[in-house]
Amino acid sequence: MKITLTGLLCALLTGLLTTLLPVSGHAQQGPPFSEQAEVQAFIATMHEQHGFDISHLTSQFAAIHSNATVLRLIRPPASPSKQRSWQRYRARFVNGRREAAGQRFWDENGALLQRAEAIYGVPAEIIVAIIGVETEYGQNTGNFGVLEALASLAFDYPPRAEFFRGELEQFLLLARENGVDPLAVQGSYAGAMGIPQFMPSSQRRYAVDFDGDNRVDLRNSTADAIGSVARYLQQYGWQKGAPVAVPARVNGDPAALIAAGIKPVLTVKELLARGVFSAADDDPQRAAALIDLETPGQATEYWLGFDNFYVITRYNRSSFYAMSVFQLAEVLREVRNNRLAATR
Question: Which residue positions are annotated as catalytic (predicted)?
Fold first, then answer.
């Protein structure tokens, strides 16, 4: 069989495309969402309950497909090599790069942070730390189409389909309220958006116009992001001036206390009676929960998390997340205070 140079090049190109296309998520995409019966029923509900135009909404769902990357990223890791590690997780967020960027962010937005703290009672360092952990101060807000991401999770991810269908509904309402094309909005693979990475329902419920321009813009307005983070935490019960967490030492088996969860229920005095010692022993009636921070091959860190720690977990339901926010906030506050003291 004679092989020509042109034929060889075509074969090589075909092989290259076959290798590369599946990575992009488009080679094996199925039919557009508009062809799914479940999506058609959803569109009909949006028309009946909220007055959306059926043909217009159908055309938007015709432009998107189930995103395999979204579905892969939302699933918890199954590999033992991805075992939870507090130290590995912490290093992603409590590091020199985020600390330096946090100082710059605080310097540039000091007046806004001071005003948010005065109105909502949430310390400036907590607000700065959350924005730093979420998007590194607006640098990484996500490059997934939010409509496609939410639709993929709403219709092709059964474990949390109900939740994401609700977020999809809220997103379409939010886009209509703000005169934004849903197909143009980008965010995380889970549909979180903007500088503070709010889910659509949170944006509609908690976001505020903090720069006074008569619109809420979490994608472009740092002021709106700062005010909205503070209000979110305040609405979930942030206690002004109250502690967040303290290190703890445990005598005996803490399994039952860990299994009780991260919501503070027992008092410090009750925890002390069960072998949990901490610097909070002088505040015996304060409610707390025992937090375990595991790292494979190392001793587990134990902390007492108070109500404000629990409030941070309402932003992201992870003790690793909340502790990273808290520890980054502590570093940011200490460095800033030292800098200010040095200039006096």
Answer: 134
